[in-house]
Fold this sequence. Notes:
Elements: H1 3-7, H2 10-31, H3 42-56, E1 64-65, H4 66-80, E2 88-89, H5 90-104, H6 108-125, E3 132-133, H7 135-149, E4 156-157, H8 159-171
Antiparallel strand pairs: 1-4, 2-3
Helix pairs in contact: 2-3, 2-4, 2-7, 2-8, 5-6
Amino acid sequence: MKAARIASLGALAALVLAAPAIALSPAAAQAAGPGDGAGGDPERRGARMERMFERLDRDGDGLVTLREMDASVAERFARLDTDGSGDLSFFEMSAPAKERMASRGGDETRSARFMERLERRFARLDGDGNGVLDAAEFAADTERMFARIDVDGNGAFDREEMAAARAARGGRRGGAGGGLE
Ligand SMILES: [Ca+2]
Ligand SMILES: [Ca+2]
Ligand SMILES: [Ca+2]
């Protein structure tokens, strides 16, 4: 990986790291079944968020900075870009999610819905419409999402800010959040 590319990958972090914590919660709530309320299992959701937070908070100081996100994003991008082209195709982007859904053997309707959301997200990010995401296209969304979580704008977010963002997102039933993870 080239340093310049890594540096501009900020966006992906929120996209593929923060987004799952935030965006998968509606799916989890649906999985819990009707009549179970919007919350799903609060303990499991809490544990998932904690794992997510710990992964993002690389130095373990209880705050996630954009720089920490960038580092996670760079790793993630490299893993996703399986052909090493420096761009992500939709195939590359969706491969981990597909694998996970296949191994879970989950509900096909839900999987299809998830893939639709993923496609919409991909299309939205593909600013020049060339069918692949370059680093800058990726980065656009991450910074926006980071700013949304970092509501007090101090350049980092803590667990509470992340939980609040996730709750807000969950309340909108996934919406455009769609999770890439
Ligand atoms: Ca930190
Ligand atoms: Ca690629
Ligand atoms: Ca593009």
